[in-house]
C-alpha cells in the first residue's frame, strides 16, 4: 500500500466494521438475555450466545490463546500492509476490523458475543462475517494476481 488513499480505505473500513460489530453486540447484550432467541423469520433469529472458542466453536475455553492469535494476526496484517494492492486493501481492512471486533470482546468480556442464527449454521456475528468475507476475498484476489502465464501455441493458423 503505497498511497494515502488506500491507507484511508484500510483503516476506515476496519474502523467502520469494528464500530458496527461492537454496536450490534452491545444492542444484543442489553436487549436479549443470554440464551434467549428472537425469531425474525422462518430461517433467521437473533439468538444471544457467548463463545469462548473460535469459529464453529472450536477451541472452546482457549480465550487467552485466541487473544494471542488475534494479536499476532493483526501484527502480521500491519507488517505487510505496504504489500497489499488497492483491491487487497479492501478485503484486508474487512478482516482487520473483524479481528478487532472479536478481540475486543475477548479482552473486555472474556468471550465473544454471537447472535445471528440461521438455524442451519453456527451462530455468528458481524465481525465473523467481515473476517470470512475479507479472507476469502483476499485469497481470490491473490490467486488472480498469481495467474500462470499462458503458453502460446507455435502451430500454424
Our count of domains comes out at 1
Sketch the topology as an H/E string, one letter per element. HEEHHEH
Stretches where pLDDT falls below 50 for ≥5 residues? Answer: none
Query: How many strands appear in the DSSP assignment?
Result: 3
Number of alpha- plus pi-helical segments: 4
The averaged pLDDT comes out at 89
What profile does the largest beta sheet have?
A: 3 strands, antiparallel
Strand line-up in the sheet with most strands: 1-2-3
Q: What is the rounded distance between the termini?
A: 43 Å
Strand content: 5-15%
Q: What is the structural class? A: mainly alpha
The helix content, as a percent range, equals 55-70%
Radius of gyration: 19 Å
Shape: globular
What do you see in this structure?
There is one protein chain. The longest helix has 28 residues, at 4-31. By secondary structure, the protein is mainly α. A three-stranded antiparallel sheet has the order 1-2-3. It has one domain (4-32, 48-145). It starts with a helix and ends in a 12-residue tail after the last helix. The protein is 56% helix and 10% strand.
Amino acid at each position: 500500500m503505497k498511497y494515502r488513499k488506500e491507507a484511508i480505505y484500510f483503516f476506515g473500513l476496519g474502523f467502520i466494521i469494528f464500530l458496527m460489530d461492537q454496536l450490534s453486540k452491545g444492542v444484543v447484550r442489553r436487549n436479549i438475555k443470554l440464551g434467549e432467541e428472537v425469531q425474525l423469520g422462518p430461517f433467521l433469529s437473533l439468538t444471544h450466545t457467548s463463545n469462548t472458542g473460535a469459529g464453529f466453536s472450536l477451541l472452546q475455553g482457549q480465550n487467552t490463546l485466541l487473544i494471542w492469535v488475534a494479536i499476532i494476526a493483526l501484527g502480521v496484517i500491519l507488517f505487510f500492509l505496504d504489500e497489499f494492492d488497492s483491491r487487497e486493501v479492501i478485503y484486508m481492512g474487512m478482516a482487520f476490523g473483524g479481528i478487532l471486533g472479536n478481540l475486543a470482546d475477548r479482552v473486555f468480556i472474556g468471550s465473544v458475543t454471537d447472535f445471528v442464527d440461521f438455524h442451519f449454521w453456527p451462530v455468528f456475528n458481524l465481525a465473523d462475517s467481515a473476517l470470512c468475507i475479507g479472507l476469502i476475498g483476499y485469497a481470490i484476489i491473490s490467486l488472480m494476481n498469481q495467474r500462470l502465464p499462458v503458453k502460446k501455441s507455435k502451430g500454424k493458423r
